[in-house]
């Protein structure tokens, strides 16, 4: 019973944050409405705010898809480093098993890198 | 962990998996470094040999006692061996089909990728069948799913193939999220991911409040896994994905992926939910919720068979038929009789042969005609009598006519549903009724083949691999239909009624 209460109480925090998340914008916008002076009907008031510059062209811009592939590659090898650091620090304790595991992990990623290289992902055309 | 404990594990138990993973790595490198003009079909034969080697290595392990590596993350019991054998045999046949696959726009650039993605998918399915830990089960599930997402979209220039891959990814990730959420409840309550420890922990639960959380977990896991089975409520991806995916991939999804789905379902449900006491503590939760699984099985059978009536596209028709077959197997799962494992195993064995045989012929004809309309089967008897007769064997088996493997499989499931008490009369009668409905569309293909005049009289050329698949499947379908004791004796002598599933 104790355990169950503890389990359910954990969700109470989630609920509290949910309420906060909903209340925050509602209260902030409502308070702003109370405080601000009544504005007149000016067309430029309805445009998007862009640091005081007149907004120009469409907000939806297409980027080259290669940025995405590069970002993906970066994330993969970034995560590899993230895994390697704690392993290197705790190497003494983890022993040979972790070494073999790491070797498999690195070799698998290496194959991935070879794949990307041969498929010409690394080349910017 | 030092080297001695590491070497003390019986790594030879993982032999089949090692063969597959090494083969897929070698294939990847070969495909990347071999010159462009090298015929990539050779890689397919390499993959086929690797799968055969894995089968041999698995057969060598049949006599082994239950063994586990690294605290049950890998576990080889008779359940794992029996179903892994099915997965490997099914994959070997699908590979033969894939080697001969030649879509209209060609597949030269991606043919190599096909084979190693196929092997990684198979590896995921194998891990799913022999694991006693939620984490490795989930990793296996994801490995299979992600490989098959890419496989579905392999015809890069084909619009339908792209559509199917996209739908598959989106539906698949939703279902995975649901499964994972269900698993998280189990982990939250028991504090372990090891299936044995979890069931031991759950046995001692007395608080009725936990039952609701566990019930929620049960439904989430079941609904999420329904995606892999292509059963209601996660069945709607099947027709679109089956239609768009390359035909060998469709065969893979409808056979190997479906078997893997049932394997993980049985593994999780039977080992965890059969040990949760509900009510006054006499019946386990799995039996308490039987009506709900039974309802889903019934809806799956009805929906699959009734919607199939309206299909003109042969691959969509087989998608609905495969939904219906998932429903039949779910009947066996609902009944939970003591022959459940045997009847499910046998049904899947029959399903591997009859469905793959049918897909071999479908691939041959759709490729030749460049369209998947059912009308292309017209006059097949005139064009190629042997092909028409073998297709008839597969269709009769799928429909469950006596003398074929499909009949014995259905009979076992039917008897299993009636032998438990209380008997599932309603479910059994729905199964009979929907089987009768299925005659209508199965025999529709037969009428096309035998009684309609052919649009053209050209002979069909049979590639060697497809030919082998058709012969093996036809022989096995009839042999298992006439002498089912072959398979059952094999089960009895090698697997001892799956007694070592628990503990």
TrEMBL record, chain A:
<keyword id="KW-1133">Transmembrane helix</keyword>
<keyword id="KW-0812">Transmembrane</keyword>
<dbReference type="GO" id="GO:0005886">
    <property type="term" value="C:plasma membrane"/>
</dbReference>
<dbReference type="Pfam" id="PF00507">
    <property type="entry name" value="Oxidored_q4"/>
</dbReference>
<keyword id="KW-1278">Translocase</keyword>
<dbReference type="GO" id="GO:0048038">
    <property type="term" value="F:quinone binding"/>
</dbReference>
<feature type="transmembrane region" description="Helical">
    <location>
        <begin position="94"/>
        <end position="117"/>
    </location>
</feature>
<dbReference type="GO" id="GO:0050136">
    <property type="term" value="F:NADH dehydrogenase (quinone) (non-electrogenic) activity"/>
</dbReference>
<dbReference type="GO" id="GO:0008137">
    <property type="term" value="F:NADH dehydrogenase (ubiquinone) activity"/>
</dbReference>
<keyword id="KW-0472">Membrane</keyword>
<protein>
    <recommendedName>
        <fullName>NADH-quinone oxidoreductase subunit A</fullName>
        <ecNumber>7.1.1.-</ecNumber>
    </recommendedName>
</protein>
<comment type="subunit">
    <text>NDH-1 is composed of 14 different subunits. Subunits NuoA, H, J, K, L, M, N constitute the membrane sector of the complex.</text>
</comment>
<comment type="function">
    <text>NDH-1 shuttles electrons from NADH, via FMN and iron-sulfur (Fe-S) centers, to quinones in the respiratory chain. The immediate electron acceptor for the enzyme in this species is believed to be a menaquinone. Couples the redox reaction to proton translocation (for every two electrons transferred, four hydrogen ions are translocated across the cytoplasmic membrane), and thus conserves the redox energy in a proton gradient.</text>
</comment>
<comment type="similarity">
    <text>Belongs to the complex I subunit 3 family.</text>
</comment>
<dbReference type="GO" id="GO:0030964">
    <property type="term" value="C:NADH dehydrogenase complex"/>
</dbReference>
<dbReference type="InterPro" id="IPR000440">
    <property type="entry name" value="NADH_UbQ/plastoQ_OxRdtase_su3"/>
</dbReference>
<dbReference type="InterPro" id="IPR038430">
    <property type="entry name" value="NDAH_ubi_oxred_su3_sf"/>
</dbReference>
<feature type="transmembrane region" description="Helical">
    <location>
        <begin position="12"/>
        <end position="35"/>
    </location>
</feature>
<dbReference type="InterPro" id="IPR023043">
    <property type="entry name" value="NAD(P)H_OxRDtase_bac/plastid"/>
</dbReference>
<keyword id="KW-1003">Cell membrane</keyword>
<feature type="transmembrane region" description="Helical">
    <location>
        <begin position="67"/>
        <end position="88"/>
    </location>
</feature>
<keyword id="KW-0874">Quinone</keyword>
From TrEMBL, chain B:
<feature type="transmembrane region" description="Helical">
    <location>
        <begin position="251"/>
        <end position="272"/>
    </location>
</feature>
<dbReference type="GO" id="GO:0048038">
    <property type="term" value="F:quinone binding"/>
</dbReference>
<feature type="transmembrane region" description="Helical">
    <location>
        <begin position="166"/>
        <end position="190"/>
    </location>
</feature>
<feature type="transmembrane region" description="Helical">
    <location>
        <begin position="425"/>
        <end position="443"/>
    </location>
</feature>
<protein>
    <recommendedName>
        <fullName>NADH-quinone oxidoreductase subunit N</fullName>
        <ecNumber>7.1.1.-</ecNumber>
    </recommendedName>
</protein>
<dbReference type="GO" id="GO:0005886">
    <property type="term" value="C:plasma membrane"/>
</dbReference>
<feature type="transmembrane region" description="Helical">
    <location>
        <begin position="82"/>
        <end position="101"/>
    </location>
</feature>
<dbReference type="InterPro" id="IPR010096">
    <property type="entry name" value="NADH-Q_OxRdtase_suN/2"/>
</dbReference>
<feature type="transmembrane region" description="Helical">
    <location>
        <begin position="317"/>
        <end position="338"/>
    </location>
</feature>
<keyword id="KW-1003">Cell membrane</keyword>
<feature type="transmembrane region" description="Helical">
    <location>
        <begin position="210"/>
        <end position="230"/>
    </location>
</feature>
<keyword id="KW-1278">Translocase</keyword>
<feature type="domain" description="NADH:quinone oxidoreductase/Mrp antiporter transmembrane">
    <location>
        <begin position="131"/>
        <end position="430"/>
    </location>
</feature>
<keyword id="KW-0813">Transport</keyword>
<feature type="transmembrane region" description="Helical">
    <location>
        <begin position="386"/>
        <end position="405"/>
    </location>
</feature>
<dbReference type="InterPro" id="IPR001750">
    <property type="entry name" value="ND/Mrp_TM"/>
</dbReference>
<feature type="transmembrane region" description="Helical">
    <location>
        <begin position="135"/>
        <end position="154"/>
    </location>
</feature>
<dbReference type="GO" id="GO:0050136">
    <property type="term" value="F:NADH dehydrogenase (quinone) (non-electrogenic) activity"/>
</dbReference>
<feature type="transmembrane region" description="Helical">
    <location>
        <begin position="42"/>
        <end position="62"/>
    </location>
</feature>
<comment type="similarity">
    <text>Belongs to the complex I subunit 2 family.</text>
</comment>
<dbReference type="Pfam" id="PF00361">
    <property type="entry name" value="Proton_antipo_M"/>
</dbReference>
<feature type="transmembrane region" description="Helical">
    <location>
        <begin position="344"/>
        <end position="365"/>
    </location>
</feature>
């Amino acid at each position: 019973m104790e355990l169950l209460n503890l389990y359910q109480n954990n969700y109470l925090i989630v609920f509290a944050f949910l309420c906060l998340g909903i209340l925050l914008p509602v209260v902030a916008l409502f308070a702003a409405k109370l405080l601000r002076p009544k504005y007149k009907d000016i067309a430029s008031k309805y445009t998007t705010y862009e640091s005081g510059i007149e907004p120009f062209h469409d907000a939806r811009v297409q980027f080259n898809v290669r940025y995405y592939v590069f970002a993906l590659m970066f994330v993969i090898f970034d995560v590899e480093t993230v895994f390697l650091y704690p392993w290197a620090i705790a190497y003494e304790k983890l022993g040979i098993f972790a070494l073999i595991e790491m070797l498999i992990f690195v070799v698998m990623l290496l194959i991935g890198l070879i794949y990307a290289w041969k498929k010409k992902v690394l080349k910017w055309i | 962990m030092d080297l001695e404990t590491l070497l003390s594990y019986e790594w030879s138990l993982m032999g089949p998996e090692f063969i597959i993973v090494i083969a897929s790595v070698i294939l990847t490198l070969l495909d990347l470094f071999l010159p462009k003009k090298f015929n990539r079909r050779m890689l397919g034969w390499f993959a086929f040999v690797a799968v055969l080697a894995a089968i041999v290595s698995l057969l060598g392990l049949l006599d082994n006692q239950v063994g586990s590596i690294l605290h049950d993350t890998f576990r080889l019991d008779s359940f794992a061996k029996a179903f892994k054998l099915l997965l490997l045999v099914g994959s070997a046949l699908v590979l033969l089909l894939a080697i001969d696959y030649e879509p209209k726009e060609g597949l030269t650039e991606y043919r190599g990728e096909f084979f190693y993605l196929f092997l990684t998918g198979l590896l995921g399915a194998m891990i799913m069948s022999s694991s006693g830990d939620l984490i490795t089960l989930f990793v296996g599930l994801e490995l299979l799913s992600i490989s098959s997402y890419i496989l579905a979209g392999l015809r890069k220039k084909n619009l339908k193939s792209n559509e199917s891959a996209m739908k598959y990814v989106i539906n698949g990730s939703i279902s995975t999220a649901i499964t994972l959420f269900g698993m998280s409840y189990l982990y939250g309550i028991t504090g372990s991911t090891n299936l044995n420890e979890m069931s031991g922990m759950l046995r001692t639960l007395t608080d009725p409040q936990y039952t609701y959380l566990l019930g929620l977990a049960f439904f989430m896991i079941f609904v999420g896994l329904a995606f892999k089975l292509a059963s209601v409520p996660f069945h709607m991806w099947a027709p679109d994905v089956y239609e768009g995916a390359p035909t060998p991939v469709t065969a893979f999804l409808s056979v190997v992926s479906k078997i893997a789905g049932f394997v993980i379902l049985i593994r999780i449900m039977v080992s965890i939910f059969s040990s949760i006491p509900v009510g006054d503590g006499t019946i386990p939760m799995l039996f308490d919720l039987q009506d709900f699984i039974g309802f889903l099985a019934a809806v799956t059978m009805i929906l699959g068979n009734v919607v199939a009536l309206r299909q003109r596209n042969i691959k969509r028709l087989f998608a609905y038929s495969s939904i219906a077959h998932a429903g039949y197997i779910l009947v066996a799962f609902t009944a939970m009789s003591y022959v459940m494992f045997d009847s499910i195993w046998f049904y899947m064995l029959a399903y591997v042969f009859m469905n793959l045989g049918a897909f071999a012929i479908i691939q041959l004809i759709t490729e030749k005609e460049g369209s998947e309309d059912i009308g292309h089967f017209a006059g097949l008897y005139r064009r190629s009598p042997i092909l028409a007769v073998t297709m008839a064997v597969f269709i009769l088996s799928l429909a469950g006519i006596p003398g074929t493997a499909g009949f014995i499989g259905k009979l076992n499931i039917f008897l299993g549903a009636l032998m438990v008490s209380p008997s599932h009369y309603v479910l059994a009668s729905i199964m009979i009724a929907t089987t009768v409905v299925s005659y209508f569309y199965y025999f529709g293909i037969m009428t096309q083949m035998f009684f309609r005049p052919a649009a053209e009289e050209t002979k069909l050329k049979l590639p060697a691999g497809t030919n082998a698949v058709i012969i093996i499947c036809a022989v096995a379908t009839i042999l298992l239909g006439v002498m089912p004791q072959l398979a059952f004796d094999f089960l009895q002598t090698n697997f001892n009624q799956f007694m070592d599933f628990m503990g």
